[in-house]
Write a structure and sequence with these properties.
Number of strands: 3
Number of domains: 1
Strand order of the largest sheet: 2-1-3
Largest sheet: 3 strands, mixed
Strand content: under 5%
Helix content: over 70%
Order of helices and strands: EHHHEHHHEHHHHH
Structural class: mainly alpha
Distance between the termini: 70 Å
Length: 311
Amino acid sequence: METWNQTVAAKFVLQGLSQIWELQLFFCALLLLFYVIILPGNILIIVTILKDPRLGSPMFFFLANLAFMDICYSCVTPPKIISNLFSGSRTISYSGCMAQIFFIHFLGAAETSLLISMAIDRYVAICHPLHYTTMVTRAICWVLVLCAWTGAFIHSIIQVVLIVPLHFCGPNEVDNFFCDITQVIKLACTNTYTLEFFMFVNSGLIATGCFLLILISYGVLLVKVKMGSSQGKSKASSTCITHIIIVFIMFTPATYIYCRPFQDSAYDKVVAFFHTVVFPLMNPMIYTLRNKEIKVAMWRLLKKYNICRDK
């Protein structure tokens, strides 16, 4: 058959979240609910950290970047889901499919690197408090963020570069609501065993390794905090536990998806939905609800805004 992966008219057909129309509407309503409530909340977190000089520590700098990355990440797949649902179309162009794959892995890898940077920040703050201000400067924070973006770009571009040469000459139905390497590779008209194994290592094993490394580091920090003096113990423990919750939310679905990437499961779409749409919007909110400083700062900002508006 004639290959079509390089043609302008080439399209993939997205199977969607469900074949049941009512269930699709439910997921769409859930998606819109999260957008209306939580997306503005993440924007408020960023504005609060930028406006309040009391939140100038590296921890809040990383949190603002995490909120920004999560906002970007949550904008990769939902617009296409909503568009297809209301238009009745299930197609996505070849270039659009490749773009989804690139940005999902680009932003996902950037968040992974940022969570590692946050773990490093907490390690220095707890284990070397006297040298914290000199070791974790604003310049170092920017370097860590830039490294996160750079490493994520390299990781993601490798995925796309390896997929683009593949020939797609047969079925073009992607059994999901967005394009990802685990579904697209299956449609190639060639033996992709080596490529599948490489993708498994590049996405699955690396994500799992980072997950375990971060968990071990926070476990060590919690032990360190428990054995230390009582001063600041509660706050340090709360911060570490909050980070662990975010790490679990971020990595558990990713490990499920990419460590068994070429085996179908009835729960794949549900896990992918929460991983790509719901959880990214929740991460900074969870951190905010457990942090008194930023909650007070947000309240001050809202009160100031209301006073200015009344005048």
